[in-house]
Amino acid sequence: MSIGPVLECPKSLVDCLPELVSSVGVKIEILDRVEPNGWEGQYVFKTSLGHIIGRRHVKDNICRIWLTFPREHAFNPLYWLADFRLCGKLERMLQENGASPCDWANVAS
Fold first, then answer.
1. Structural domain contains residue 108
2. CA 103, CA 6: separation in Å to the nearest integer?
3. How far is CA 105 from CA 19, 38, 42, 101, 109, in A?
4. What letter would DSSP give residue 5?
5. Domain for residue 109, yes or no?
6. In which domain, by residue range, is 29 found?
7. pTM for this structure?
8. What is residue 53's three-state secondary structure?
């Protein structure tokens, strides 16, 4: 499901992201691959039930992370509550550490 916030993160936050999320009990997997649509990789955030994909786009030394829900959870409402909670937790944590919300117009350009 392609819904979720887009956040602009400073390089210092991106560099310490694995330690930051693991300190609050969230596992992270970093996948580096360039996709045809310009997204350069993904972060996979997991808790015991929640699962969030952080699509990563770097432009002009600014990393934009789009927090989305995994496709395999789209048609199973039993996962939705845990995914929404994890997404909110990640968004708050990133904003508390220097990230700022990004407008869709800035993402497309």
1. no
2. 7
3. 31, 15, 21, 12, 7
4. -
5. no
6. 6-100
7. 0.85
8. strand
